[in-house]
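Project standup — Tuesday

K.O.: blocked on the structure for the chain from last sprint. Re-posting the sequence here as requested.
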Amino acid sequence: MDKVVTSAAAAVADIPSGATLSVGGFGLCGVPAVLIDALLAAGVDDLEAVSNNCGVDEWGLGRLLAQRRIRRMISSYVGENKEFARQYLSGELEVELTPQGTLAERMRAGGSGIPAFFTATGSGTQVADGGLPWRYDDAGNVVVASPPKQTQTFETAEGPREFVLEHAIVADFGLVRAWKGDRHGNLVFRDSARNFNPLAAMCGRVTIAEVEELVEPGEIDPNHVHTPGVFVQRVVALTPEQAADKRIEKRTVRTRAAGDGA
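H.V.: unblocked you, prediction finished:
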C-alpha cells in the first residue's frame, strides 16, 4: 500500500481541534517540524500533546504553544522553553510532568496493546501519592493536582519493593520525523534523532511520518527498520531544503588554540 501523501497540509487536514498528539523528538533533535508547521497553518487548537518536551520558544511544538493552540502537555521536561514555563505557572496550560523513562514506557505500552504496567519509579513520592500540580490559577494556587496511583508490593531479588501502576498512552495522531522511509511506511531514524520517535509512532492511532529521504519498498534492509510500516498510516516526503533545516538547541564555541588544525 502506497502511504505517501502529497503534502504536509494534506497529511494533517483531518486532525481536529481537541485531538491528542504523540510527537517525536528530544529537544530540537528529530522534531517533525514540517508537520507541526502544517498543523499551525491549519488553525486547530485545544490540543493535548504527548512529547518529551515542548520544543523551544518559536520552534517545534513551541510554535503551537506560542499561538495558544495547546491546552495540555504530558511531558518529562520543561527545559529551555520560557513560554512553556510561563503558561504553566500562570495557569494557562495544564502540564502532567512524568518521569522520562515512565513516559517512554507509557507510550510503548500504548502501541503494544498493554493497558497498564507497574514500575518502581516514583514510589514513595508525589508521583505515586498524588498532589503534583497539573494546573495553577493566575494567582499561583494549585487548582488541578495529580491523583494518587495504585501501588503494590512485589518480591524482587533485593526483597519486597513497592511499585506504582502507570497507564498506557494512546494518542489520536502521532507525528514523527525519520531519516529514511519507504512508501509502505517503514522508517529508519538516524543516531540520536531516533529518541522518542519510534514510541510516538507506536502509540498514535493514525501516525504521520515526515521523511528526509523517500525510497521504494525493498530498498531498506529489514534488519535496519526501526519502525515497521504497520505503525505508520501516512508518509510525507520532505524537500531537500526542509530536510536540511535542523536547529541547534545550544551552540557552544571555543577559541581555537594556536597550532590546532583547520
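K.O.: great, moving the ticket to review. Helices lie at 8-11, 33-42, 61-66, 82-89, 100-112, 126-129, 197-203, 240-244. The mean pLDDT is 95.
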